[in-house]
Amino acid sequence: MNAFVIVGGGLAAGKAAEALRERGHSGPLVIIGDEREKPYIRPPLSKGYLLGKEERDSIFVHPDDWYREHEVELLLGTRARAVDVRARQVELDDGHRVSYAKLLLATGSSPRRLSVPGADLDNVLYLRRVGDSERLKSAFTAGAKIVVIGAGWIGLETAAAARTAGADVTVLMHSELPLLKVLGREAAEVFAALHVEHGVQLLPDVQVEALTGTDGRVSGVRLGDGRHLEADAVVVGVGITPNVELAQEAGVDVRNGIVTDAHLHTSVADVYAAGDVANAYHPLLGRHLRVEHWANALNQPRVAALGMLGEDAVYDRLPYFYTDQYDLGMEYTGYVEPGGYDRVVFRGEPAKRQFIAFWMAGSRVLAGMSVNVWDVIDPIRDLIVSGADLDDALLSDPDVPLDRVLP
After folding, report:
1. CA 393 – CA 222 distance, rounded (Å)
2. Full-prediction pTM beyond 0.90?
3. Beta strands 217-223; 228-230: pairing state
4. Residue 377 sits in which domain range?
5. CA-to-CA distance for 306 and 164, rounded, in angstroms?
6. What confidence tens digit (pLDDT) does each residue in 137-148 have?
7. Residue 101 placed within a domain
8. Distance of CA 243 to CAs 31, 147, 240, 254, 281, Å?
9. In this structure, what CATH number is given to the domain that contains residue 355?
10. In what order do the strands lie in the sheet with 228-230?
11. Gap between the Cα atoms of 365 and 384, Å rounded
12. How far apart are CA 145 and CA 164, in angstroms?
C-alpha cells in the first residue's frame, strides 16, 4: 500500500497534501494533527485575525470539502506518540498504528514557557494556536493593563494589537532595543521609535523575577530591580522550540530541529521534514538553517512532496518574513548572523518609516528589508543571490531602479 503520512496540522501539512495530489500521488494520504482544527495559517493569529480584521474561516489552508474531494484523511485531535521506522508505522495515542510508505514530519514548534514563580497563573498567555489568539483578543480591551515579556516579532505584534485595542501596554526587553539581535541597532531603532510613538512603554535590560497574582489570576510582574508592574494579562513571547521529540525517539538526526539535506530528506530513509522543525541544508548559504517563519512552511512542502514522489528538487529559497505593526508594513529576505555584517545601507528615510535597508559584508548584499515600500523583494533577492560587488551609492540612491544596481 503506497500510503503517505504527514504528521502535523499547520500550513506545511496542508500545503504538502496539496502538492502531493497535484504532482500525482493517488494512494492513501493521511494528515495526523493534535489540534482539532484542520490545517491553518499562523501569521494571522498575531496580525489580522487578532486585530479583528480577518474572519476565522480565512485562516484555514483549505476548506472542509477540499480534503473530501482530494481524498485526504484528517486525523485531528490525534497525537502521534511514536514512529517505528523499521515497521514504517506511526503509533497514535490510542494505540492504533498507521502504516506509511513515505512520511513527512511537519510537527512545527512550541512557545518557550516562562520559568519563574507565578508563571502558571491564569491569564498568563502565549500565542501559537488559534485558541491562544482568541484568548489574547478577549484580553486586549480599552484600558486593560497588558505586560508583554519579550520584544521579538510575536512580542511586538501582540503589543501593537493590544495598543490598537486601547490597552495600556508595557514591553519588557532583555536587551537595549527590540529585535536588536535579529536586525541590529540601525533597524531596531526604527521599531523602538514606532512603538514609543504609539504609546507603548519599552523597558530595556530587565529581568523578570516573578509573576504575582490574586485568587489564581495574574495581577502583576515583579522585576529583578524590585519594581512591580500591574497587569490584567501577561503575554509571553520569549521564543519557540522545535517539536523534535517524535523524530528524536525514532532515531532521526536532531540538532536544533530535524536535520535534513537540501531535498528535505532526513537521516532516515523515506522520512522528510518541513517547516519550523526542519534544520535544512541551504545550498546558496552553504549551511544548515532552521527558519521559524511562514514562508518556509508555505514553500518547503512542495520540495518535500517531490522528494517523496522520487523527483529531484532542492529547497534554495532565501529566508523571508514580514510583519505588520500599526501603519508599518515590512518585508525582509536574506540571512545575516548576529554581528555578521559590516554596515547597513539605507535607501529612503528611516525616520519617516519608508525605506529599504541593505545589510552589507564588504560590497555584497547579505539581506534586505523594505519598510512601507512595496514590490521590491524580488529585485532585493536578485541582488543577494547575485553575490556581485555593489556600490553603496547606487544602493542608496532612490532614483536608481533596483534592477539597474547590478553591474
Report:
1. 49
2. yes
3. antiparallel
4. 327-404
5. 43
6. 999 999 999 999
7. yes
8. 17, 27, 9, 10, 19
9. 3.30.390.30
10. 208-214, 217-223, 228-230
11. 5
12. 13
